[in-house]
Amino acid sequence: MSENVEDDSLLQVCDLGLNFGGVKALQGVSLTLRAGEIAALIGPNGAGKTSFFNCLTGLAAPSEGSITLRGADGEQMRLMGLKPNSITEKGVVRTFQNIRLFRNMSVLENVMIGRHCRTCASIFGAIMRHREQRQEEDYSVTYSYALLHKLGLAKQANELAGNLPYGAQRRLEIARALATEPLLLLLDEPAAGMNPSETADLDRLIQRIQQENIAILLIEHDMKLVMSISQRIFVMDYGRIIASGAPQEVRSNPEVIKAYLGEEQT
What we know:
This protein is of the alpha/beta class.
């Protein structure tokens, strides 16, 4: 289902709620993102950040609210109720806190899997290997190699994904996500487990992705990275957005300090 609205935001989330039995994981969460914007979603463990990502990508069914995405043609599309594969086709894709790769497949094959949502060949066409099918496969290989080159993984294209160093596996997961040609890339703790050098590389990579007018929303506990690359920061606690704004605004917000440090002792 689609609808026309005047707001030119890429993503609009309004009054989103998510209940697990009697537990309210999300309560009245609202935010917007612009095309090509880098934003961060931060907060203590258990604040509801990953639950929010799950709602955006169809892995969890919100109990209330709305999620809309502005497509490349300007049309506003409702994402609520869609299956994860349909949401990926619309332009929203994510990575996970725990790396999810096909470890026994090659690096190149992992990226090519991301192209599946952009291919049109039928099962019959794949069996008969018509000219259109071969052309599509050739383009998928070329496109995937180009992504690997951008992310510094081209030399490992034929290696098993499970044999890559940790930081390279993180980049491969991002490459697979980018293969879907997203409008919005969701990164769930992309710097987790990285050393300072790998984190610096990630910082530069995220900024390069932004230059392609892809919006990025990341969940991250590395505050140095968050403050370095984010144009806006949303702070979540107990399933609610308690603060938002530019990094310098959020850094000194009393509600944010309270969420991270607890009540002041007297």
